[in-house]
Each structure stands twice: as structure tokens, then as C-alpha cells.
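User: Quick one: structure for sequence A, then sequence B.

Assistant: Sequence A:
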Amino acid sequence: QVQLVESGGGLVQAGDSLRLSCAASGRTFSTYTMGWFRQTPGKEREFVAAISWSGGITYYADSVKGRFTISRDNAKNMVLLQMNSLKPEDTAVYYCAADHRPLRVVDTTRVYEYDYWGQGTQVTVSS
């Protein structure tokens, strides 16, 4: 069992940076693939980024590549999402998720691959 709690959301202006944190509970956190997703009202939840259990493999949606960076600290049971050069279209509720399987690029973007989810944190980017 893994419990996830996101934090760090807020209201920023276009071009600003924001760092989201995901605190995880559970002894097996270091074995999980971790992902970030986002969702806006009326739309499906979409993949943002994922990181392998060791942190050695990362994968990003094209829309955030080069602007967002996912990282993890297994000693602290934390996953971070550094978001730079934010755009109004990045406005969404951001969710942290955990998958007990190794990262597989073909699957890691799919919502149903993930076993556990946080409650989400709102990010609003004004123009």
C-alpha cells in the first residue's frame, strides 16, 4: 500500500516556475515507477512525466519536454516535478501516481497502469 500527497501548487504568471512535491508513505516506495498526470475540467487525465524506481529513466509528454523535470529521492520517499517556463495551457490539477511495475515507455502514459493516486494539487498559470 502506498499513500501519496501532493503539494506545491499555486497561482503563477506565464514564464514563472513552480515545483510540485509528492510525499509517499510505504516501505516499498523505492520499487515503484512514479508518474505525474494532470487534468482540466471536462477533459481526460493526461500523462505529464514518469520516472523509474532508480531515477535512471525518465519520460515526458511532448508538451512539457524541455520545460519540466521529474526527479525522486528514495531516501525521503519524495517525487518532485520542477516546472519551468510555465504556460497558461499548463493550468490543471496535477496528480502524483505510483505503479508497482518497472517503467515501460509503451505503458507508462496510461492512467490505468498506475495503482495509487494522490488527491491532486491545483496549478494555475495566468497570461
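Sequence B:
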Amino acid sequence: QVQLVESGGGVVQVGGSLRLSCVASGRTLDRYAMGWFRQAPGKERREFVAAINWSGGSTYYAEFAKSRFTISRDNSKNAMYLQMNNLEPEDTAVYYCNADTDPSTYYSGNPASPYDYWGQGTQVTVTS
């Protein structure tokens, strides 16, 4: 049974930073692409944030995340991270990590794609 557990969320003021973590258990995910999605309050659909291939050599970002967020991973710890800087109120959301064997699944940024595994999410709240 594979579990992805997110942590690092919290309440932060505008302009602040947070580092989210996603740790996998149950199997090694060093051959999986991994990614972050988020779901803002009142929104029905999750939104793609960023993804990273199995080695960490390739990364993909949503436009809003390119200049402020950095995705990374540490396969020795079976973990992935999202460093978020200069946070804005619009970044308030539940952030979810996921994993899939096929990195091309992330190209469309479609949260409804059949990703192999999802975490339960961590809340990020940005106050002004």
C-alpha cells in the first residue's frame, strides 16, 4: 500500500515562504514522476502547480509558479518538495502531491488524468 503524505502547510503572510514536503511510504518512487496540484476554496477542480521527472533532471511549472515556486526531490528520502516564495493570497489552497510512472501524464496538467497515487493534501493559507 503506497501512501503519500504532505506536510509543511500553514498560515503565512503575503510575501512569506513555505516549503512543502511529500514523503512516500510503501514503495520506492525513484522511477516515478511526481507533481503538485492545488485546490483553492470554492473551486471544483484542482490546478496543476509543478511536476518533476524521476531523476529530478526535468521540471515543469504552471505559468503562475515559474518565478516563485521550485520543485525538487530527494530519492534517497523518497521525498519531494515544493519551495514557495513571495506567496500571495491567491496561493491559498489545499496542496496535493501525486506520482505516476509516466511523466507525460503531467504535460496536460489535467488533474483528472489517471495518476497512480495521490496524497491527502496540506492546507496553505496566505493572509494579507
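The CA atoms of residues 90 and 126 lie 8 Å apart. The mean pLDDT is 95.

User: Thanks, that's what I needed.
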